[in-house]
Amino acid sequence: MRHAAPALPTRPLVRLRGVEKTYASGTRALQGLDLDIGQHEFLSLLGPSGCGKSTALRIVAGLGEATGGTIDWPTARHDARGRPLREIGFVFQEPNLMPWATVFDNVWLPLRLANLSRAAARSRVESVLDMVGLLAFANAYPRELSGGMKMRVSIARALVTQPRLLLMDEPFAALDEITRFKLNNDLLAIWQQARCTVVFVTHSVYESVYLSSRILVFAARPGRVVGEVSIDAPYPRDNRFRLTPGYTAQCAAVSDLLDRAMRSPAACVAEEALR
Predict the structure, then answer these.
(1) Is residue 7 assigned to a domain?
(2) What does the alpha-carbon distance between residue 106 and residue 111 come to, in Å, rounded to a whole number?
(3) Structural domain count, the chain
(4) Neighbour count for residue 50 (Cβ, 10 Å)
(5) Average pLDDT for 60-87
């Protein structure tokens, strides 16, 4: 059954307004970032290296603090003290698995840290391992897995807490093209099954168009959004979508926007300074 890309709801999951990030060295990573992250959407952040995409992701995750602006969670549940529960899973560029632990134990880790016993966590761990196609490898060790399988374990570990928001920082960048294409397909299936929001950082125009319901293009540092493209193609998508005129046209439009972002005055100044 095919369905359209989710529309951005009136009340987003996360709202960033005027977010800034300046490091102690004086480097300005983000400038006036305004961003709404909708419920159940697949949003990609696309831009050149060093443009602040990963910085923005970490600020949303609470792994770094903004030096200006506000971050609101309009639809979040709250804890006993009235603070919003972020309910986030994070997938880094590297799987970062514990080499001495089995696949099961690597995925169990977030629940273990939340004081959930192995027995109590078993059904949830097995459920997400089944979702990523690794249930049969629950007792395997990371050294026995391929690069793509290790990344699946990392995704399962991020999903085991049942987050509303899954943040992914270039998770497939180091993988070969065949594995990357396969994981793109698997990720879309996981996203639809988990019913979470995904924010995906990538340098690949082609990957962003294939995966996303919406793409935000960042300019070179200081990072800021300079353009937005909605991908109206319905889900589920498969490799046939890559061969359609619509996909080609969307890739061309996003590439043009990215090129203009990299040729912005700030980018030209940066290029001149490197000469």
Answers:
(1) no
(2) 10
(3) 2
(4) 15
(5) 84
Strand 214-218's sheet: what is its strand order? 88-91, 165-169, 197-202, 42-46, 214-218, 225-230
Asked whether residue 196 is domain-assigned, the answer is yes
CB 77 within 8 A of CB 102: no
Pair 156, 169 in one domain: no
State how far the Cα of 111 lies from the Cα of 115, in Å rounded to an integer: 6
Q: What pLDDT, in 10s, does the model give residues 214-252?
A: 999 998 878 888 899 999 999 999 999 999 999 999 999
Helix H or strand E segment including 42: strand 42-46
Which structural domain range is residue 74 located in?
A: 14-87+164-274
- Res. 161 pLDDT band, cuts 50 70 90: very high
Measured from the Cβ of residue 255, the count of other Cβ atoms closer than 10 Å reads 15
Please identify, among 142, 162, 182, the residue that sits at the C-terminal boundary of a domain: 162
Query: 180, 219, 188: which is closest to 50 by C-alpha?
Result: 219
Q: Tokens 């696309």: give the residue.
A: 46
CA distances from 135 to 123, 207, 234 (A): 11, 27, 29
Joined tokens for residue 31: 């400038």
Calculate mean pLDDT across residues 6-11.
Answer: 58
Quick check: is 172 in a domain?
A: yes
Query: Contact 219/31 with Cβ under 8 angstroms?
Result: no
- Which backbone phi and psi does 73 adopt, to 5 degrees? -120, 80
Residues 188 and 80 in one domain: yes
Q: Are residues 81 and 170 in the same domain?
A: yes
Same domain for 203 and 229, yes or no, is yes
Q: Are residues 37 and 153 in the same domain?
A: no
